[in-house]
Write a structure and sequence with these properties.
By secondary structure, this protein is an alpha/beta fold. The chain folds into 3 domains: 77 residues, no CATH class; 243 residues, P-loop containing nucleotide triphosphate hydrolases (Rossmann fold, 3-Layer(aba) Sandwich); 36 residues. The protein is built from 14 helices and 12 strands. It has a 6-stranded mixed sheet with strand order 6-9-10-4-11-12, sandwiched between helices. Helix 8 crosses helix 11. The radius of gyration is 34 Å and the shape is elongated. Bound molecules: adenosine-5'-triphosphate. The site of adenosine-5'-triphosphate has 10 residues, from helix 5.
Length: 402
C-alpha cells in the first residue's frame, strides 16, 4: 500500500512543491509591476506551469518505473541464477566430474555419506525384469548444506526383483521413498551402490502422480511422446486409438471435442480423472513390457480403475504400482512394503510379501454367493455358520476378498 501510495502521489506532490518555490519565495513574486508587464508575466508563468506540469507527470511515471524495475531486476536475478545452476549442472554431467567432497569428521562411522562424486552403482539392461540388488534409496544432495552432510538416506539397501507378470504393489507411509524408488528405476536419481537391472527404455513406461499433458491435439495427448509423423510411420491408426480410448472409458472424448485434431488447453479442459485415464491410454498405446504406475489412478473411479488394470495385465504389461489403495492389491501377486525411516532398531526397512494369485471373476462370484448364503443361514445356525466362514476364510487366504 505504501509503495503504491509513494508511486502515485509522492513524485507529483514533490513536483508541485518544487514548482511552488519561485511563487512563494521569489522576490519578484512580491514586486510591484506595471499592467503590461503583468500580463506578460502571467502568460509566461502559465506557460511554465503547463510545461512543468507535463514534466511532473513524466517524473511521477519515471519514479514509479524506477521502483518497479527494482522488483523486476530481482526477478531477473532469480531466473539468471536458476539458468546458471542448470547450465552448471549440465556441464558437470557432460564431464561426469562432480566436485569431490570430503567426509565430515563429525559424521559417525556407521552413517553412510552420499555425495555426487561418490556414485559407485551399476546400471545394466535386463530383458525381462526390473531388479535392484543392494541399492540404497537416497535423495541426491542439491544445496550446499546437503552437499556437506550427504544426501538424505530413505532406504539403506534395497534388494528385490520383478520378473514378467509378477505384478508388484509398492506401499508405505507418506514421504517414505516410494516415488524416490521409481526415480532410481527411471535413472533420474543415481544408483549409489549395488546394481540396477532395467529393460530398454522403450520397454518400460512411467506414469507419475501428476499427469503431464503436452501442448497439442487430442491425438498428441494419447501418443505422447510420439509425434503424429512417428505414429504414421509405425503404421498405427486412429481406429486403434479409439479402441485404446475404449479401454480407459474415454470413447466419448473425440466426439465431444470435435475429433483427434482438436487443439485445446487440455490441462484445463479435462477433469482430474480424465487426465489420468488419458495417461493410462498412453501406456496402452506404447505397449511396454513393464510399467511403473505412481499413484496415477487416485482420481479414477474404482470400477473403471479395475477394468484398466485388467486390460493392462491382459496386454502383457507387468505392473509396478505405487499406491495407498488396498483395493488394488487384488491385481498384484506381490507387495513391497517400505517402512524406511520408521524402522526401529535392527528391523528391515522393507518387506516383500507374496500375495496369492488373485481370484478370477468366476471364483469371486462363486465365493460371493457362498458368503451371501452363509449370511442368510446366520439367523438359523450360528455355530455352523462360524465354522463354514472360517473354512471359507482359509480358502480365501491371500485372495483379497475378505
Ligand atoms: N527433489 C527432492 N529434493 C529434496 N527432497 C526430496 C526430493 N524428492 C523427494 N524428497 C524427499 O524424499 C522423501 C521421499 O519422497 P517420495 O516422493 O519418494 O515419498 P513417497 O513415499 O512417494 O510419498 P507419498 O506417498 O506422499 O507420495 C520425502 O521426505 C521428500 O521430501
Amino acid at each position: 500500500m505504501t509503495e503504491d501510495f509513494i508511486i502515485k502521489y509522492f513524485w507529483s506532490a514533490a513536483g508541485y512543491g518544487l514548482m511552488s518555490i519561485p511563487l512563494l519565495f521569489s522576490k519578484n513574486a512580491k514586486a510591484t509591476v506595471t499592467t503590461n508587464s503583468a500580463s506578460t508575466m502571467v502568460a509566461s508563468r502559465t506557460e511554465n506551469y503547463v510545461s512543468n506540469r507535463r514534466l511532473l507527470l513524466s517524473l511521477a511515471d519515471a519514479g514509479g518505473r524506477l521502483m518497479y524495475s527494482g522488483k523486476e531486476i530481482s526477478e531477473l536475478v532469480g531466473y539468471t541464477n536458476r539458468v546458471y545452476g542448470l547450465l552448471g549442472a549440465l556441464h558437470t554431467l557432460d564431464t561426469d566430474s562432480y566436485p569431490v567432497v570430503d567426509r565430515p569428521a563429525h559424521l559417525p562411522n556407521d552413517k553412510p555419506f552420499f555425495v555426487m562424486s561418490n556414485v559407485h552403482g551399476e546400471t545394466c539392461i535386463a530383458e525381462n525384469r526390473v531388479a535392484l540388488i543392494e541399492v540404497p534409496i537416497v535423495v541426491p544432495p542439491t544445496d550446499t548444506l546437503s552437499q556437506l552432510e550427504g544426501g538424505d538416506v530413505l532406504v539403506k539397501s534395497l534388494t528385490f526383483a520383478v520378473g514378467e507378470n509378477e505384478h508388484t504393489l509398492i506401499s508405505g507411509g507418506n514421504g517414505i521413498g516410494k516415488t524416490s524408488l521409481a526415480r532410481v528405476i527411471a535413472g533420474l536419481w543415481p544408483v549409489w551402490q549395488g546394481k540396477l537391472e532395467v529393460p530398454e527404455s522403450s520397454d518400460i513406461f512411467y506414469l507419475s502422480q501428476r499427469p503431464y499433458l503436452p501442448i497439442g491435439s487430442l491425438r498428441d495427448q494419447v501418443i505422447y511422446p510420439h509425434s503424429y509423423a512417428q505414429m504414421k510411420a509405425a503404421g498405427r491408426t486412429e481406429a486403434e486409438l479409439m479402441s485404446i480410448l475404449d479401454k480407459v472409458h474415454l470413447l466419448y472424448l473425440p466426439g465431444r471435442e470435435g475429433g483427434f485434431d482438436t487443439r485445446k488447453e487440455w490441462k484445463d479442459v479435462l477433469s482430474g480423472g480424465e487426465k489420468q485415464r488419458i495417461c493410462f491410454a498412453r501406456m496402452f498405446y506404447h505397449r511396454p513390457k513393464f510399467a511403473v504406475l505412481d499413484d496415477c489412478t487416485n482420481a479414477v473411479s474404482s470400477d473403471v480403475e479395475d477394468r484398466m488394470y485388467e486390460s493392462a495385465k491382459q496386454a502383457g504389461i507387468t505392473l509396478l504400482t505405487i499406491t495407498h489403495r488396498p483395493s488394488l492389491l487384488r491385481h498384484h501377486v506381490r507387495q513391497l512394503i517400505i517402512t524406511g525411516k520408521e524402522t526401529i532398531g535392527t528391523q528391515p526397512e522393507y518387506k516383500v510379501m507374496s500375495l496369492a494369485h488373485p481370484a478370477t471373476e468366476h471364483e469371486r462370484q462363486t465365493l460371493d454367493a457362498e458368503i451371501e448364503q452363509l449370511r442368510r443361514t446366520l439367523a438359523i445356525e450360528v455355530p455352523e455358520w462360524r465354522n463354514r466362514l472360517d473354512q471359507v476364510k482359509a480358502d480365501l487366504s491371500g485372495k483379497m476378498l475378505l
